[in-house]
Structure formats: C-alpha cells, structure tokens
C-alpha cells in the first residue's frame, strides 16, 4: 500500500506541530464531506499541490489523511503525464504514478532497481519476518522459486477446489440461508473475510480456524492475526513513525499489543510445524497437500523460514479476495442488468461446477475484473529506488526515493479506458467470436491493469483468487440476492490498510431467489 509516513519527516514535526495543526483544522473544515467511493466524479480541472520551504506539502497531506487514496488518485488524474512528485519536509520527495510506461519500468524493465526497501521492511518485519512479501534480492528470489513450483501443481489446484467448495456448501450457504429466513442484517464484508480466512488457513497449513460458523466466533488465532495486521498497517500509515518506534522500545500501547499478537501467531504456526515435522520423522512425505506440508516434504525444514513464508501467504489471501468480492456485490446491486447476465451464465453451469466450467464463466470473470478496476484490493503499492534513475516520462528518481504506482487511479484514467471509464461495463473485457457468437475474454496489459502486480513479482495466487471468487459468486448468486442496507442512498466509502476495505462494513439483507429467476 501507499505509506503516508514516507512523505513526512518525523523530526520536523516537532518544530511545526502547532502550525500544522492549525492548517490541518482549516483544511479539514473545508473537506468535512466523507470521501465517496463513487467512480464517476471527475477530478478538479486543475490540482496543484502547495509546497512550502522546509515543510514541503505537509499541510495538504495532513488535510487529506482521511481520503489519502482518493486524494492521490485525483492528483495523478489531473497530471498530464499521470505522474506527480510530492515534496516532503526537509527536501525529500516521493513519486506517484499511473503511467503504464512507468509501471512497466518499475515492475519489469528496471525491476532490479526497485525493491520493497527499508521503510516497508522496517514496518512489517516484526509481523512478516523475512517472508516473501517482505523480502528483496536473493532471499525473495529463493522463496519465489520454491513457491512457484508448489503453486503450479495440479494436486494443489484440486486441493484448493475442495477446500473452497466445502467452506461454501457447509458454512457460507447455510449462514446466508438462515439470514434470508430471518430477514436479518449481516455484515457481508465480515462474512467474506471469515470465509477467506478459513480457506487460506486450510490451504496454507492445513488448519481450520472455523472462523465462519453461525455464532461468528472470535477465533484466538484469527483475532491475533487481525490485530497484528492492523497495527502493522497503522505503522505504515503513521505520519510520525518515531511514535510507534518509541512505543516499541518501551513495550507500551499498540506496540505491546502487536508484540503479543505476533507471538501468538508465530507460536501457533510453529506448533503446527512441529506436529508436521514429527509426522515426517515416521514417513517420507506428508499425506496432506497444504502448502506447509509441501514445503516440509520438499526438505525446507527451517522453522523461521517456513513460518515467515506461510504467514505471508495467509496475509495475502486473507483480505484480497474478500475485498474484491465485497465491492463486486455492491456494484451488482447498482447494476442489475449485469447481475442478470451473470445469473444467466451461472444457470448454464452445473450445481457444483468443476474447474473447467468455472474457467469458462467469461462474463463473470470480466465482471470481476471490471469491479477490481474501480476497487483494486491493493489500491497503491510503493517501491524504493536502489540507485538514481529516470522514468520513461522523464521523472527523475534519486536513490532512496519511494515510487508508488497507483492501480486505483489507473482504473479511472480516461487515457487508458476511454471516455466511458466511469461506466461499470464488463463488456470492455470481452470480444465476441465471429463464428460461434460466444464471448471470449480479452485480458489487458498488466502494466495498464496492475491489480495483481506485474513482472517478476506478479501474484502467484492470481488463478487461485479467481477460482475462489467465481465459485463464491456462482454459489451465492444461484440461490440468493445480496441487497445492501443503505441510508438515503448513501455510497460506501473506500478505505485501505494493507488491503482495501469498505469503511464501516457492508450491511446487507439476503433474499432467497424465486425458482423462476
């Protein structure tokens, strides 16, 4: 994600705290309206970032903390090159870009020059250790090779299908059925997060936290994981990192809670590793096909290495698919004509579609892609320059500068998607075969649509994510309509920590479909 702490110097804050607070209150009073999630609002015709000696653009940054993704998106969209440079205090700078040429340069052509970097690893090492999503260089390369091998096996794909189908039929559908019968209101975002957490835990290390039960229990492991992820995200968003570093030194407040949560998560993971290692002592390989068992059976026995990589995969799979599905169901409610087309496609498939049938759900696939164009699970991602560089659009990057590419802004650029970019139109991803008359999916350049990253770091779980999302869509929509409970037509607010969320949850009623639908 894009870290606002990168923009502000912790030291200058003390000298200008009073001045900044006054200006912050002034700007905040001018922008009291909540940040709307609506994709149709154009940016102001001219958006210039005010910058001052010593403090740079700190005042505007403070004024837009409550809508940082939307604000930075507006800046990019208002720029002729889709790139902006924000001045930090004491002369520092950070680059924000939605230019596909720049994105390709960062993620592929000059991949070697753009790492996760010190800021990212400093904030997340306590939680993720040296896991794949927090690693650079040879450490990242080794984990990527090991993981790529395991993700490309048919047996893992089959295991994932079984896990998702079981969670869907045994837990999600019964909960929705009960809610429909009772006409009760559910936080569908929470339900989808629980569903995804159960799935990724079973896929990652063969453990079922049973987080999605009718009682909606507070699983000890799930709560600790959520706490660790949330506080780690708050570190990244902090405008004054010195505060959390001091709290960590003194072991107080949120940093004390983070330490306890991380200890709970890592001890839990290591207990499972010990159990599986004991099993391996009596046989050549493990019977289970989860990722942890595969790593251990392949000879990767270092507890810390395996723990780090598994925790990274849980973090990646926990919120991304649930975030994508949350906004997808909101958009379907807003666009019933799209819902009807998806339902027609679903009804052409069997009750429990096999992998090939799910793969052939091209209109559903296009609708998910279109939804993530507006609401990407990771709306912005930052890299750190290893050495001086110049981006293709001429932007100068100095060693140590952060460069952020912005999928949320890119999904709203007329230059990339045409004048109809505000329209939710899955057909933009489809092309009809002139012979058969059937729709065929047409993928976009990954540097124009970097929702799953691109280049060497492209998401390993992309196919797994689409498999899970399409099975959920088919299973839910075949039987139910998801009807948001909104007040006076209010739009939900898009917000982001380590992954995107709908602020305040997604309250819905579940309505059983009539047989004729």
What can you see in these coordinates?
This protein has 517 residues and is of the alpha+beta class. Helices cover 52% and strands 10% of the residues. A 5-stranded mixed sheet has the order 1-2-8-5-3, sandwiched between helices. Strand 12 (494-496) and strand 13 form a beta hairpin.
The strand count comes to: 14
Rounded mean pLDDT score: 87
* Largest pleated sheet: 5 strands, mixed
What's the N-to-C terminus distance?
A: 40 Å
Q: What fraction strand?
A: 5-15%
Helix content: 40-55%
Rough shape?
globular
Radius of gyration based on Cα positions: 23 Å
Class by helix and strand content? Answer: alpha+beta
Which consecutive residue ranges, at least 5 long each, have pLDDT under 50?
6-38
Quick recap of the structure?
The protein has 517 residues and is of the alpha+beta class. It is built from 19 helices and 14 strands.
Descriptive terms for the model:
alpha+beta, five-stranded mixed β-sheet, 517 residues, 14 strands, globular
Question: SSE layout and pairings?
Answer:
Elements lengths: L11 H19 L27 H6 L4 H11 L4 E5 L5 E5 L2 H10 L4 E2 L1 H12 L8 H15 L2 H29 L2 E3 H18 L14 H18 L3 H10 L2 H28 L10 H7 L5 H32 L1 H12 L7 H5 L2 H13 L6 E5 L3 E2 L5 E2 L4 E4 L1 H4 L3 H4 L12 E3 L6 E3 L20 H18 E5 L9 E3 L3 E3 L4 E6 L5
Parallel strand pairs: 2-8
Antiparallel strand pairs: 1-2, 3-5, 4-14, 5-8, 6-7, 9-10, 11-14, 12-13
Helix pairs in contact: 5-9, 7-8, 7-19, 8-13, 9-11, 10-11, 11-12, 11-13, 13-16, 13-19
